[in-house]
Specification:
By secondary structure, the chain is an alpha/beta fold. It is built from 19 helices and 24 strands. The longest helix has 81 residues.
Length: 727
């Protein structure tokens, strides 16, 4: 919307008043009095809409509106144009939607805003002529909503109005509390699948070269552009949160101080607090500690902080618990005009309160006091954290290691599910020897140290000094010697840390806040030649899409290096009973994927060739088998013929022997018979001799044939033996 619509106009409010029903019996005087009353109320409401400008420093005071923006431009390049080329030092840039022709720009001082108007008005950027003017600050959303409800026509009542505070706070914090957990998982799996499809479509919008790859992936993975794993979760679904930030305020009646959660958002027109007693995701130990502190606050003379007037003191409580039964409380107040002595007295009372025997049973092992002060014009503020009693940190166990956690350090809010998250990340990344791990936004070092035994080097980057101190202590007490941790912004440290690695391969683990990684950090990761694998862990998958699209953009002057594209996505339910779901995206260099695909094709070709050779061998085996069978048949026939010949030769020899015997008998007879008969016998003997000679010749012939057949059979047998040896 334009600056003219940044607040509720007088005409809209007048119309709302005019639309109210009027009695026909009201006289002229009453109408005039009512009109005056309405005008006074209207002026008061209009002042309240912008009263917040006097409470805290806000860049809404120094805002301008720039128009005439080109139809297509990048948000990052627009910021670069403002802050680097024109050197305007813009604090915030707020376009109403992508591709709009105008935007709001906020500054930290009136001078900075006025200088920016002079620099921007009439300047040409991307062939578009810009104009700039002072913009009205946005109205207080709470007061605006309140006015809308006051002046709106009667409508069906909000269904939550008749609900108890307990039910309303359950709906606002754990909206799925009454849904079976199996159904929650199905719903989240489906939602993540939709997000993955949207992400890949947006990647294709900027990198058409990936279309073929995504098309193949869709065929492989049931329509998904990358593999989508089954949702990972812990079996513990109640009391799982190890950290909660509770608001201190007034209950729904406005009469009792309470520590809990808002029943609705500030912008929706509610600042009332609901109780935490029936919330499933908060552990009982934490609830007990909060109830004890609530008693102290109720008995205190100090009022709770009122976000509409910015008056009051008690504001926030952060509670942290661990599986080692540690409990940390960080009690935050807005000190307003309290003196140093007043603050010390309050800190002393809190310390003594939790040391009382009846309160000590809750087991607060670490107690802190935090002052939360308003921002100054330079953007500084936030107060300080003071240690009151107990240990300065708590400890938690995760994957067999012990981790130290300081008040401001990041640690996953669901320890049991975090173990599943980290195991899944390790399984996806598959770090090998000669690998360095980059743990970006490392917090207390939990992810990097969980990876340490799987790789040669671990380098962690984190901007919170106490978290880095914890990470170094955690490495020492878990006897991990291959890790280093660095304090600073990822966009500032990534390049020097990458240059520090000594291994030929780099795997990056990125676990950024909801806003994602800075563009310079993404560019540094893209440029790292040794980095081929990246695991992106997102607590807000929809918000992560922009980072993932930038990682997959084609190689260009700005995004130098081969694209990193999604290979597998795995949802992780870190927040049972809520609609939130963590997402792990495993990415690889596209060139690495192409190389692997080519290797797969080559393997398939080799497999086909091997199959072909195998088939050919089987065919030859079949042919050889037939040949062998024929050889055996021939050998068998030769043996039969040989046996017949031998039998025939034996018969001939027997006949010869018979003839010799007969001849001898004739000779004997010749001695006793007459000469004539002898002559006949001799002739007959000669005939027998001739016949015997023929028969002997026949036997010799048979023997020669038998030898030939035997020789042929032996040759066939040798061929069969040789074939069998080859097999």
């Amino acid at each position: 919307m334009s600056s003219d619509n940044a607040s509720i106009s007088m005409e809209v409010v007048d119309q709302a008043i005019d639309d109210q029903p009027k009695s026909e019996n009201v006289d002229k005087t009453s109408n005039e009095e009512q009109s005056k009353s309405n005008n006074v109320a209207l002026e008061t409401d209009q002042k309240d809409l912008y009263a917040y400008l006097d409470h805290d420093f806000t860049t809404e005071r120094f805002k301008l509106e720039v128009r005439g923006l080109p139809k297509f431009y990048g948000f990052g390049e627009f910021r670069k144009f403002l802050n680097e080329k024109l050197q305007l030092d813009a604090s915030k840039i707020k376009p109403p939607k992508r591709g709009s022709g105008w935007a709001y720009i906020c500054f930290r001082s009136e001078k900075s805003r006025d200088d920016a108007i002079k620099a921007l008005h009439g300047v040409e950027w991307k062939k578009a002529k810009l104009s700039a003017q002072v913009a009205k600050p946005a109205p207080d959303p709470f007061i605006k909503r309140k006015m809308e409800r006051k002046n709106a026509k009667p409508t069906p009542e909000d269904p939550t109005v008749d609900m108890s505070p307990e039910t309303r706070v359950r709906l606002s914090t754990t909206p799925l509390y009454d849904m079976p957990y199996a159904d929650q998982l199905k719903s989240k799996q489906k939602e993540i699948g939709s997000i993955v499809k949207t992400m890949c479509q947006q990647i294709l919008n900027v990198n058409e070269d990936l279309k073929g790859w995504f098309d193949k992936q869709r065929k492989r993975h049931e329509g998904f552009p990358c593999e989508l794993g089954e949702i990972v979760h812990s079996n513990t679904t109640d009391g799982y949160r190890n950290k909660c930030e509770f608001t201190i305020g007034m209950d729904v009646t406005g009469t009792k101080k309470m520590i809990g959660f808002r029943l609705a958002s500030y912008a929706s027109g509610s600042v009332a607090i609901g109780p935490i007693d029936e919330l499933r995701h908060i552990p009982q130990k934490m609830k007990t500690a909060i109830k004890i502190l609530e008693k102290f606050i109720c008995d205190s003379d100090l009022a709770v902080f009122d976000p509409t007037t910015h008056q009051g003191y008690w504001k926030l409580v952060t509670a942290r618990t661990t599986r080692l039964d540690h409990l940390m409380l960080i009690i935050g107040i807005n000190p307003q005009s309290m003196t140093e002595e007043d603050l010390k007295n309050l800190q002393k009372k809190l310390k003594e309160f939790f040391e009382e025997p009846c309160n000590a049973e809750v087991g607060v092992t670490s107690l802190y006091f935090q002052t939360i002060v308003k921002k100054e014009a330079g953007g500084k503020g936030g107060g300080e954290i003071v240690h009151l009693s107990g240990s300065r940190y708590i400890e938690e166990q995760l994957l067999g290691m012990t981790f130290r956690i300081s008040p401001e350090a990041f640690f996953q809010v669901n320890t049991l599910a975090a173990e599943e998250l980290y195991k899944t990340a390790i399984e996806l990344a598959k770090p090998l020897e000669n690998t360095a791990l980059l743990d970006v936004c490392c917090g207390t070092g939990t992810i990097g140290l969980s990876f340490a035994k799987h790789c040669d080097e671990v380098f962690g980057i984190e901007m919170i000094p106490t978290a880095i101190h914890d990470a170094k202590v955690n490495a020492t007490q878990n006897t991990i010697n291959n890790s280093e941790f660095f304090i600073g912004k990822a966009e500032d440290l990534l390049i020097p840390v990458i240059n520090r690695t000594t291994q030929p391969n780099i795997v990056a683990i990125v676990d950024p806040p909801r806003a994602g990684l800075h563009q310079r950090a993404l560019i540094a990761l893209r440029k790292a030649k040794k980095l081929n694998k990246l695991v992106y862990i997102s607590c807000d998958p929809k918000a992560a899409i922009k980072n993932l699209v930038d990682l997959a953009r084609p190689n260009s002057k700005q995004y130098h290096g081969d694209p990193l594209v999604p290979v597998k996505a795995v949802p992780v339910d870190m927040f049972p009973h809520t609609k939130h779901c963590e997402l792990i995206i495993y990415l690889e260099r596209f060139s690495l994927i192409q190389k692997r695909e080519q290797e797969k094709v080559e393997v398939q070709v080799n497999n086909i060739e091997e199959e072909k050779e195998k088939v050919e061998e089987e065919i030859m085996d079949l042919e050889n088998q037939k040949l062998v069978e024929k050889l055996w048949e021939k050998v068998s026939n030769i043996e039969k013929e040989t046996n017949k010949l031998e039998e025939k030769a034996n018969n001939v020899e027997n006949e010869v022997d018979t003839f010799f015997k007969e001849q001898n008998k004739i000779v004997e007879k010749a001695k006793i018979i007459e000469e004539g008969q002898v002559i006949d016998l001799v002739k007959e003997s000669e005939k027998f001799s001739e016949k015997t000679k023929d028969m002997r010749n026949q036997v010799e012939k048979y023997k020669e044939e038998l030898n030939v057949l035997r020789k042929e059979a032996l040759e066939l047998m040798e061929q069969v033996k040789k074939k069998r040896r080859i097999e």
